[in-house]
């Protein structure tokens, strides 16, 4: 009897994957690279998840895809865990059925990259363990719009938005929308700098000091839902633009190249991550957006990614907006 119970316990704990020495040594160097320390139980659990992620990455990279995957800081997490920590768990109110942005009707250049036009885009930041992507998309956009208007590029405060923008349907580490954050800044009459109101990655009490406001919003421009041409027009003729899209499990390990997915949806209710379009282009027959993310400069292409343009990929044209300063 005792033997049988013991055996069952062993079987239950047996890993689902066959792990090789190579898997384990790769995991150990990954742990060193990303400063991970686990207790014994956690170690085996994370080794298992890491190896599953690694297998998927290897399989993907053997195929003929427009983008590659790689190990990164998220490689010891399941997508479920990743989603819970970094993405919106509930749909946000992100549909501007009729946006107020009107196309310039200008002939647009084939490619645009605000990073190369001048000192208009701040360094890639890191949201940490907080679903505050919407604040980084917001500051990234307002930083650029302000720099284009004034010639001065100043990093702005995400934490003020996390702590103070709740009255505009924003929810700190549990999600929010750039358009609603721009509204908050407009009605609140200002946003402080990163230096004056630094990022802490958790929701605290609002300590906004109006006398230290450093950036302002006069008007919020929403691009009509699914008008990807309008998004292109605004990025080409105005400034970098905030948008949201649906992150699915194939995006977590993105490395480089043009991301496309058959896993994600194209509707407003599925978008779960906000980012910043800083340009667009095309290469190897594929049109893409150049996008600034907030998962540190170690993720993706130095913190950026490319995503296919022209197909409302993953709902990327569902709720785009930018401020007028
Ligand atoms: C890889 O995919 C591209 C684009 O879909 C296609 O043009 C190319 O022929 C494919 N190459 C191979 C070896 O299948
Ligand atoms: C969407 O808007 C409604 C009405 O303003 C509000 O009650 C609800 O909390 C909003 N949802 C989110 C996720 O912010
Ligand atoms: C822009 O969208 C936000 C919500 O996302 C909304 O509150 C606001 O009224 C819209 N602004 C305009 C000018 O349509
Ligand atoms: C285009 O293809 C080349 C050669 O395969 C590759 O190095 C490059 O990264 C590709 N460009 C994009 C944007 O995917
Ligand atoms: C979403 O995808 C479906 C199926 O591919 C397509 O028919 C539809 O036009 C797309 N809708 C939008 C808004 O992009």
Features:
325 residues, alpha+beta, Cathepsin B, Chain A, 7-stranded mixed sheet, globular, disordered N terminus, binds 2-acetamido-2-deoxy-beta-D-glucopyranose
SSE map:
Layout: H1 2-13, H2 21-33, H3 40-62, E1 67-69, H4 79-86, E2 112-113, H5 114-117, H6 133-150, H7 158-164, H8 178-188, E3 219-222, H9 228-237, E4 241-245, E5 254-259, E6 273-283, E7 286-292, E8 304-308, E9 321-324
Parallel strand pairs: 5-8
Antiparallel strand pairs: 1-5, 2-6, 3-9, 4-6, 6-7, 7-8
Helix pairs in contact: 6-7, 6-8
Bound molecules: 2-acetamido-2-deoxy-beta-D-glucopyranose (5 copies).
- CATH homology group: Cysteine proteinases
Number of strands: 9
Cα-atom radius of gyration: 21 Å
Distance N to C terminus? 75 Å
What is the chain-wise order of helices and strands?
Answer: HHHEHEHHHHEHEEEEEE
CATH architecture: Alpha-Beta Complex
CATH topology term: Cathepsin B, Chain A
* CATH class category label: Alpha Beta
* Helix content bin: 25-40%
Task: Return the structural class.
Answer: alpha+beta
Structure description:
The structure is a single chain. Strands 1, 2, 4, 5, 6, 7 and 8 form a 7-stranded mixed sheet that branches. The N and C termini lie far apart (75 Å). The chain is 33% helix and 14% strand. The protein has 325 residues and is of the alpha+beta class. The site of one 2-acetamido-2-deoxy-beta-D-glucopyranose (NAG) has 8 residues, from helix 8 and strand 3.
Summary, kept brief:
The protein has 325 residues and is an alpha+beta fold. It contains 9 helices and 9 strands.
